[in-house]
TrEMBL record, chains A, B, C:
<dbReference type="InterPro" id="IPR037401">
    <property type="entry name" value="SnoaL-like"/>
</dbReference>
<dbReference type="Pfam" id="PF13577">
    <property type="entry name" value="SnoaL_4"/>
</dbReference>
<feature type="domain" description="SnoaL-like">
    <location>
        <begin position="16"/>
        <end position="137"/>
    </location>
</feature>
<protein>
    <recommendedName>
        <fullName>SnoaL-like domain-containing protein</fullName>
    </recommendedName>
</protein>
<dbReference type="InterPro" id="IPR032710">
    <property type="entry name" value="NTF2-like_dom_sf"/>
</dbReference>
Length: 152, 152, 152
């Protein structure tokens, strides 16, 4: 136990923190609104996206195609992404590392809401022409983590 | 694809962003705590509230009456409102436009929790004697959106 | 109705607000990641933890033991804590009072997600060697609140 000795984490500036909240809000509004091109445009040209369960996508065009395909699972229901417990750390070179919880709710026309498996996500954000873009995203799905643990 | 050309959104000041978070936290504590008068007092005298499914309410007294009536659906269970993915934009005249995801969880005495249909909400906030008040709220319920899409 | 007369709440500084978000994100990453020692180290030596349903824990060692025991209910499933509607107020002596909604999702290896009863939590945070620590936490579980209300 090192209560009094553990150094505190590096805290992001309020300006950066707020910019990051707005980045994710707009990115997810696009995704959940079916604007997959707009969603993909929030990734940098050299971005890498590692979905849960393996594989990897390189660049906005591959991400757009995959996001559109993945949304097929919703049928006509309305997805919403929810994030929480986000850490934000800025490196000396200006890149921003975040980590956060994520889940998706799916609202059907009959009024039911399904909660998809929770995830732990790690992003690296960079500035392109002054604006934040995601350069990498790595998603770990908690049900797969639990399964791996059980089979461990 | 316009990754490198899309201009970034206007970011709110950290002071405003934090003030907005506190506005909503207190507004929802009142609502979920059954203080419908306090909830309604967070709306301006000239406010307009457009609930999901149609109709419109004008002013704090109508909003208080409607909020109290709507809470009847919970029986004795405890509701909690959850918001996420909030965009915050301040216009030149100082009005603040927000948009966000919202849902309500309902905790029953038997330990079960029900998740109500998710919503997309758009507010306009203004200052009254220096303090933020909601001047308008427009709620779109995602299950109704999905139903309209299916009937499209 | 006192729309125009109710004074606004005291708003935390952006720096403090962001520091508080990072405190909780890291505290919950530790808890949900099974690092109960790290979780407990985020409490001050003189801390008091009042779990839902009664009883009280004093100090990091008791909190660590109780957190590890409580996590047994998850079996091998993956818990995630979610907070929202957080008020943050700093007193003149620098102590920080927060209040917020909390729930836990539990992701099982079969892909199902369970939502645990929502809670209302009140914390007092203090600085130890410059870093935020929780000095007290009081948890009210909403299903128990609903039950007490029903039993009147």
């Amino acid at each position: 136990m090192t209560t009094d000795e553990t150094p505190g984490p590096k805290i992001p500036s309020p300006e950066l923190y707020v910019e990051v909240t707005q980045f994710y809000a707009r990115q997810m509004h696009r995704m959940d609104g079916g604007d997959f091109g707009g969603f993909a445009a929030s990734f940098s040209q050299d971005s890498v996206f590692a979905p849960a369960g393996g594989g990897g996508l390189r660049g906005p065009e591959a991400i757009e195609t995959a996001a559109r395909a993945a949304a097929g699972r919703f049928g006509g229901a309305q997805p919403r992404h929810w994030f929480d417990m986000m850490t934000v750390e800025e490196a000396d070179d200006g890149t921003v590392s975040t980590s956060y919880y994520a889940t998706v709710t799916v609202a059907s026309s009959d009024g039911s809401v399904q909660v998809e498996p929770t995830c732990f996500v790690r992003d690296v954000l960079v500035r392109v022409a002054g604006t934040l873009r995601a350069r990498s995203r790595v998603i770990e799905r908690d049900d797969l983590t639990a399964r791996a643990r059980a089979e461990g």
